[in-house]
Amino acid sequence: MPTYNFAAGPAVMPEPVINQIQRELPSLGGSGMSITEISHRSAAFTDIIERAEADLRALMDIPDDYAVLWMQGGGTGQFAAAPLNLATTHQRIALLDSGHWAVRAGDEATSLGFKVDVVGSTKADHYHTLPELAHPLTAGTYDYLHITTNNTIEGTAFHQLPATNGTTLVGDMSSNILAERYNVRDFGLIFAGAQKNLGPAGVTIVIVRRDLVHQVSHLPSMLNYQLFMDKHSLYNTPPVFAIYACGLVLQWLREQGGVDEMERRNREKSGRLYDFLDESKLFYNPVTSNARSLTNVPFMTGDADLDAQVIAACQAAGLMNLKGHRSVGGLRASLYNALPLAAVDALIDCLYHFEKDHA
Ligand code: PMP
C-alpha cells in the first residue's frame, strides 16, 4: 500500500527527486564529496544556483528587470523584509485580509512601526470567500498592497488579482508558487517559502522588480534586498542543500511540462475532490466555489469526533497528515505539485467508504 502525504508544509516532494538526492548524497557529480559538505563558493554550487535561477525564470517567465533572491527566514521573514525594503516612502501599506497569514503579515508590519490599513476583509464570513477592495486604492497613499495569493489554512486562492490602480502589488505566494499561472509583471514583489511546492524548508524565494530595490539604512543584512541582489544571494552562507534540492525540483517541473501543466493537474486533482465533497451528504467544503484553492482543500463533517475518526481511517489507509489546521478544524488535503492524482483518488475512495459505513 503506498503512503500519500497530504501535509500542508513541509510537504510531499517528487519521488524521482528524492531518489536522485539519495543517489547523489554521498558524492555530488563524482566529486567524492556530499552536497552537504561543499562550499557555497565552489564551482559546483555556482552551477547549481545559477541553473536553479535560470529554471525558475523559465518556469515563471520572470522578466530580466526582476531579481531572484534566495533568502532565509521563510514567509515570516518576508513579512518583515517586504515593508522594511519597500515601504520607505509612505511607511504605509494596504492589506487584503484573507485569513491567518495575511493577518500575520499585517501584525509583523505593524510591530515594526508601519501603518497597515486593512482595505478589505472576509473575517466576518470566516474567510470562506475572498476580500475585495472596499474602495479603490488612492494613488500615492500606499507603498504597496499585500495579498496572500493562496490561503493555505482557509483553502482560498486569488485566481484573479485585485485592481490596484497603480499601487505596487506584493504577493505572498508561499502555498501556490509554481502551482498555478500568475503573471510576474502584475507584482512588484513575490515571495514564497520553499517547503510546499519547491523543496525542503530553509530557503525562501524572493522575486522583486529591480527598480523597487534601493539602499535602506538600519536594515539587518539578512533582510536586505539590495545586499542580496548585489551579492547574488551569496552575502553569507546560503542554505546549500535546500537550494540544491529546489534546483532538482525545478528541473523536474520543467520535464513535466512546467507551470501550465502543473495548473492543469492541480485543477484536475482539486476538481475531483471538490466534486466528491459537493456530492457528499457527510462531508463539505465551506469555501465559495470561485474562491477555492487548487492546492489546499479543507473539509469536515461538522462533528469533531467524527472528523477524528475519518483522519484515523485515512491514516490506516496510508493517507497521511490530513488533520486540518486548528483554527478551521476538520481535515485539510494539500495537493501540491508533487502529489500524484492517484493520491486524490485514494483519498476519495477512503472518504466514500467511510461515508457509506456511517450512513
Ligand atoms: N504565508 C503562507 C501563505 C503560508 O502558508 C505560510 C506557512 N504555512 C507562511 C506564510 C509562513 O511561512 P514560514 O513558515 O516559511 O515562515
TrEMBL record:
Keywords annotated in UniProt: Amino-acid biosynthesis, Aminotransferase, Cytoplasm, Pyridoxal phosphate, Serine biosynthesis, Transferase
Residue numbers carrying N6-(pyridoxal phosphate)lysine: K196
Molecular-function GO term, any one: pyridoxal phosphate binding
Residue positions binding L-glutamate: R41
Domain of life: Bacteria
Transferase among keywords: yes
Protein localization: Cytoplasm
GO cellular-component term (any): cytoplasm
Pathway: Amino-acid biosynthesis; L-serine biosynthesis; L-serine from 3-phospho-D-glycerate: step 2/3
InterPro entries associated with the record: Aminotrans_V_dom, Aminotrans_V_PyrdxlP_BS, Pser_aminoTfrase, PyrdxlP-dep_Trfase, PyrdxlP-dep_Trfase_major, PyrdxlP-dep_Trfase_small
EC number assigned by the record: 2.6.1.52
PROSITE patterns referenced in this protein's UniProt entry, alphabetically: AA_TRANSFER_CLASS_5
PANTHER family in alphabetical order: PHOSPHOSERINE AMINOTRANSFERASE
Cross-referenced NCBIfam families: PRK05355.1, serC_1
Subunit structure: Homodimer.
Name of the protein this chain belongs to: Phosphoserine aminotransferase
Species: Lacticaseibacillus pantheris DSM 15945 = JCM 12539 = NBRC 106106
